[in-house]
Amino acid sequence: MTTPADPDPQPAGPPTRRRPGGRTARVRAQVLDAVRAELGEHGYDGLTVESVAARAGVHRATVYRRWGDVGGLLADVLDAAGDDDWRPPDTASLEDDLTALNQEIQDAMSARPSVMAALIAASFRSEKAAEAQQRLWEDRYTRCEIVVARAVARGELPPRTDARRLLIAATAPLYHQLVLLRTPPDPHLPRSAARTAALAGAAGAFTEPPPSGP
Amino acid sequence: MTTPADPDPQPAGPPTRRRPGGRTARVRAQVLDAVRAELGEHGYDGLTVESVAARAGVHRATVYRRWGDVGGLLADVLDAAGDDDWRPPDTASLEDDLTALNQEIQDAMSARPSVMAALIAASFRSEKAAEAQQRLWEDRYTRCEIVVARAVARGELPPRTDARRLLIAATAPLYHQLVLLRTPPDPHLPRSAARTAALAGAAGAFTEPPPSGP
Q1: Of A176, A179, A207, which to mutate for an interface test with B (greatest number of B Cβ within 10 Å)?
Q2: B130 touching A, CB under 8 A?
Q3: Which ipTM value was assigned to this complex?
Q4: Topology (CATH) of A20-81
C-alpha cells in the first residue's frame, strides 16, 4: 500500500507555453525517478547525490540546493509516494479488503528490485527518511480506516472497533516476516493475516477501551 | 525475548590453573560486552573494530583475527544472545503467556539504550548481522512453540493449531509499531496483541492447512 508512485507527471499544455512551475516539477520528477532507480539497483550504499544527478541529467548543484543530501532525496521520494489518490480496496467484505491490502504490500515488497524494501531499509540509515517513512505509513493507515468503518456499517464488526489497532494487526505479520524475519513471501499469508484480524475483530478484540488486565 | 545475554561468564576455578579455553572465553566476553556497550551508546555508525578493541582492553589484531569486521562482531553478539537457557513464560493461560512474552519484547526494545533495537537496525547494514538476527529469531520462535502446545493441551486452542503462525500474529504488532512505525511504546499493546492472537486462535484462524481462498 506504500508503493512509491510518480506524483509529478509533466504538466499538460503546449511546450512553448509552460506554466512557471513546469520546469521545477519536471526536474523533481526526473530526480525522484533517478533516486528510485539507483536505490533499487544499488541500495542505500550506492546512492549519492552525484549518481542521482548524473542519472537524472540534472546539474548536481541543483540537487544539492534543492534536496541537500541523500536523506533529503529519500524523504522527498517518500513524501511524493504519499501524494497520490490511492484508496484501499472495496470488495464488500472485511476479510477480502484486508487480503487485497496485504497482497499489495507483499507484491511491493517482493518486487525485484523493490523500491519499497529499499526505502524501509534506508529509514534505518537516515533520520529524514525515517520521519518521511513514518508520515507515509500514518497517511496510509488513516486512508485505510474506511475499510473498518464500512465493515462496522455492514455489521461485520462491533461498533466502536478501533480501526488503527485492527489494521496494524492485519498488516503487521506481513511486515514482520518480509522486513525483519526476512522469510520468503508466503502466498497464504496475505489472507491468513487478514482472516486473523477479521476473526479477532468480530470477537471484539479491538473494541475500545483496550484491555488492561486479565 | 531476544534480549542479548552474556553467554560467557568467566570459568570457575582457581586463577592459577585455568582451563585452556578460559582465556579465549574471557576475551570473547570482554569483546562482546564492548560491542553491546558501543552499539548502545553510539549505534552502528560509531562501532569500529578499533573502538571495540580499546574498550575491551584487547589488542585490535586479536579482534580482526577472530571476528574479521564489525559484521562479524555483531553476528557473534547475536549468536551469543541465543546461547542461553531462556524459556517462554508459563502462566497456565495462553493470553497471559503471550502477554508476558510481548512485555519482554517491549521492555527490551524500550530500554535506553536498547541493544536489541540497535542490533535490529544493524541487521539492515550488515549481511552477517542479518543472518545472525534471523537465526536468533528462528531459535526464539521455536522455543516458544511450547506455549501453543500447552494451550492446545489445556483445550484453549483447537488441535493442529500452527504454532508459528499464532506466535507471529501475537508478536508482530509489537515489532511493527516499535521498529518500523517507530511509535512510542503503548502500554496496552502487549496484552492487546496477545488477546487478538488468542481469540483468533480459539476461533480456528491458525489451524492447518492455511486458508487458500474466500
Answers
A1: A176
A2: yes
A3: 0.84
A4: Arc Repressor Mutant, subunit A (1.10.10)
